[in-house]
Task: inverse folding
């Protein structure tokens, strides 16, 4: 079945799009949204560490470029290194501090990064749970909210906000790229200015990936 979208394009829904997906982890709520909680081991899964290093690496790229620029102007390597060795040492110390800071933060969070996801035909929402919220409590809240959502969606939304720290939303019609990392239980859903990270259990990976990619008309499958 093909659906028209506001961009005037057409894309094919998956064969099971009209069916309700069920699993031990993902719950389909009366408001038409799939919701689930994922707990990531911050020590074993390096995704967040890679993200932090990427951000700081980008910030360091500009001064590093100006440090090595003389090499392209014919200045000997020894001379360039002699002038910039202390800066390079500082860069090394800085990145060691980034590593240390990440693992300190992981310890504060109890080594777990707990997130809740909401997904429907329009997009997917990533909600970071506050550090004191454990997975068992988050799942309990999710089940309670799923039962309430049909009667009072506004109250449910307010309850979710009080339990979350930050959130990121991806509009499927605006998504430019989707990347899958099965070994890290991760699907990156990227728009122009929004980069979302969607996590799920092994057994739900294929469903979530297919659900997202078949609803993003701007990506190449």
Result:
């Amino acid at each position: 079945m093909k659906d028209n979208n506001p961009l005037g394009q057409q894309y094919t829904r998956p064969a099971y799009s009209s069916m309700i997906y069920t699993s031990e982890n993902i719950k389909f709520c009366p408001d038409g949204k799939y919701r689930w909680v994922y707990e990531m081991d911050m020590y074993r899964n390096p995704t967040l560490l890679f993200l932090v290093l990427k951000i700081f690496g980008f910030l360091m790229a500009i001064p590093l470029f100006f440090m090595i620029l003389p090499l392209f102007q014919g200045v000997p390597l020894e001379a360039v290194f002699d002038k910039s060795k202390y800066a390079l040492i500082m860069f090394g110390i800085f990145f060691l501090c980034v590593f240390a800071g990440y693992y300190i933060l992981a310890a504060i969070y109890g080594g777990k990064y707990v997130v809740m996801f909401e997904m429907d035909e329009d997009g997917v929402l990533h909600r970071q749970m506050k550090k004191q919220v454990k997975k068992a409590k988050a799942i309990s809240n999710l089940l309670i909210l799923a039962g309430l959502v049909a009667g009072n969606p506004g109250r449910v939304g307010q309850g979710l906000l009080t339990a979350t720290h930050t959130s990121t939303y991806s509009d499927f019609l605006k998504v430019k790229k989707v990347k899958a990392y099965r070994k890290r239980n991760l699907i990156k859903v990227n728009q122009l200015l929004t980069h979302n990270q969607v996590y799920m259990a092994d057994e739900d990976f294929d469903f979530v990936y297919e659900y997202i990619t078949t609803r993003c008309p701007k990506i190449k499958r």
User: Anything to note?
Assistant: The CA atoms of residues 53 and 95 lie 8 Å apart. Helices lie at 47-72, 77-108, 135-148, 153-163, 205-213. The chain has a mean pLDDT of 76. The two ends are 17 Å apart (CA to CA).
